[in-house]
Amino acid sequence: MTRKYNFCAGPAALPEPVLAQARDEMLDWHASGLSIMEMSHRSAEIVAIAEGAEASLRRLLSISDDYAVLFVQGGASSQFAAAPLNLAAGNARVDYVNTGQWSKKAIAEAKRFADVNVVATAEDTNFSTIPAFDSWQLSDSPAYLHYTPNETIGGVEFFWTPEVNAPLVADMSSTILSRPVDVDRFGVIYAGAQKNIGPAGLTLVIVRRDLLGKASDGCPAMMDWKVAADNDSMYNTPPTYGIYLAGLVFAWLEEQGGLAAMESFNRAKAEKLYGAIDGSDFYANPVEVQSRSLMNVPFTLADSALDKTFLAESEEAGLLNLKGHRSVGGMRASIYNAVGEEAVDALLAFMQDFEQRHG
Ligand SMILES: *Cc1c(COP(=O)(O)O)cnc(C)c1O
């Protein structure tokens, strides 16, 4: 077996020890005689697995009892609708920041259920910047302010938290667990699992309890955070295997030393990669330096006619999924928690070699 280096933006690399443990436990989990996938979600085993995963996540992010942790389905994209449905009953006013493709999708969906005010947009810089906070056109008393702390496609990340007089709602799909975050600053945090948490099919929602119970009458039960909270995420059959794998990932993160350790590890990887890109005339990254993502690193070649060759040769070298998003072009290396330093080193060696041969 040869495992390759996977720079996919999502579903993304998972820690190898987690996959190995899942393999070992696949047919017979802890001498239960069953696979996790075959167990009732009401069984003592699954309830304990879900509780253990939640407890581990609470330790990692220091989540207080003021917050409910929900394991739901539908991806982050369902939360684009769930946010206004839960918090903006009566077509209430809501504020959104537009910093890229995922913001745009969240805004488009929210417009179906709420009165959306876009407080700032980075469209004029082709989403390579974050609009300065003092330029934001905030509403007087919006139901919430929504933003995307890490734009997975553009590679733009907030290293500051907006300070507003409304609950902050954050789509943290591609940044959660990459570094510590002060959960108390947020009303709602949500994330699809397939970047830094676990397999696709699981979605995480962390919601301050005082925001529960405000859903609009038309909110489907499956999107109502209070229904999920009141039923310990078991109103219907939850993605049990995804919760199990997420629990293994959380345990792995705790073993690594938690999120402060992950931050220094992730910063070291990102600095290496950005350093190599900036140190060359052959590669370029368009994002303003102070907003460069630690997780998603887009880069272009000086001659885009070489893109196809770069992708073909990198794949041959065992470096997978470096193609940039179709809306941006070029390349993108996603270097989530489970992408090791040796993967980044292999990418850098390939990039240097490619530049020497084609530059
Ligand atoms: C991947 C991603 C999404 C979409 O997630 P799904 O789970 O596929 O719906 C939304 N927002 C961000 C920031 C993402 O990275």
Would you summarize the structure shown here?
34% of the residues lie in helices and 16% in strands. It is α/β, with parallel strands linked by helices.
Task: Describe it.
α1 crosses α6, α3 crosses α4 and α7 (258-278) packs parallel to α9 (341-358). The protein is 34% helix and 16% strand. A hairpin with a 4-residue loop joins β6 and β7 (156-157). It is built from 9 helices and 14 strands. The protein has a 7-stranded mixed beta sheet. Strands 11-12-14 form a 3-stranded antiparallel beta sheet, with helices on one face. It has helices at 16-24, 44-61, 75-87, 101-110, 225-230, 240-255, 258-278, 307-316, 341-358; strands spanning 5-6, 67-72, 93-98, 115-121, 145-147, 150-151, 156-157, 168-171, 188-192, 203-208, 283-284, 296-301, 319-320, 331-334. The chain is α/β, with parallel strands linked by helices. Bound molecules: pyridoxal-5'-phosphate.
